[in-house]
Amino acid sequence: MAGGTRRWRLAGAMVVLWLASGCVVDFPPDEAQARLALLEEEDRRMDAAFDAVEVRLLGNQARMHLWQELEQRHGQVSAIQCQVSEDHLRGMANLLKRQEEKARAQRMASAGTVLSSAFQGAMSR
């Protein structure tokens, strides 16, 4: 029986150590509960603040994408406008050149008529 008593003492010592370690008592003190409540409230506030920051960042990111798209489209439109303007100005220059040639030809023709009239008038005298 000496071995049985020894086992009971060892088991008793283990139970005492287990109780002393705090494994059985799982209830936090009142101040710990109050601190936990404060930390949970702060956690909720921080989550709300992070959510607001995330919404702002996503909004700003969307705004940046919009401005980049507008910049790209503006560049495309400007390139098209430059090409159209260049073609139009070349057409205007060609038309002006043809009109000047036509006006020169008409002046030459009328000058030739005036000269021939003057030549005929001088010959008939």
Q: What does this protein structure show overall?
A:
With 125 residues, this protein is an all-alpha fold. Helices cover 91% and strands 0% of the residues. The chain has two helices and no strands. It has helices spanning 2-20, 30-124. It is rod-shaped and about 165 Å long. The N and C termini lie far apart (174 Å). The mean pLDDT is 85.
Blueprint of the fold:
Elements: H1 2-20, H2 30-124
Task: Identify the notable features of this structure and list them briefly.
91% helix; mainly alpha; single chain; 125 residues
Concise account of the structure shown:
With 125 residues, the protein is an all-alpha fold. 91% of the residues lie in helices and 0% in strands.
Global shape: rod-shaped
Largest sheet: none
Regions with little confidence, pLDDT below 50 for 5+ residues: none
Q: Structural class of the secondary elements? A: mainly alpha
Mean pLDDT metric: 85
Distance between the termini: 174 Å
